[in-house]
Amino acid sequence: MGLWNESNISYDRAVNDYDKIIEKDPINAQAWKNKAFAQKQLGRHNDSLKSYENYLELNKSDSYTWRVKAEILKDLGRDAEAEAAIAKANDIDIASVNL
Q: Where are the beta strands (DSSP E) in 26-71?
């Protein structure tokens, strides 16, 4: 559903599709992440940030997504929060190396 729409640059439709998936399965982490990506592509940074935060509640150890969150926060002028997100990503990466 949603992935097909993303590949065709129909991000609005993809967001709607992911909303339907999330409505049925609110702990579907991949749907939250994909929705956030589509929202970001549409320039909906606040909405994208909220969706990424929902994703990160379900998958706290995704350092890449913490970095994406930091990028969005920086775009929104929330530099201190962006730095905290980068620090979190770095902590995750260091922990994974030390396993």
A: none
Domain boundaries, given as residue ranges, for the chain: 2-97
Phi, psi of 98 (to 5 degrees): -85, 5
> What does pLDDT average to over the chain?
92
**Single pTM value for the model:** 0.87
Would you identify the CATH topology of the domain 2-97? 1.25.40
pLDDT band (50, 70, 90) for residue 85: very high
d(CA 65, CA 84): 13
In the 8-state DSSP scheme, what is residue 1?
-
Phi and psi torsions of 38, nearest 5°: -60, -40
| pLDDT reported for residue 96 | 86
Kindly give, in sequence order, each residue whose CB lies less than 8 Å from that of residue 14, ignoring residues fewer than 6 positions away: 2, 3, 5, 6, 34, 35, 38
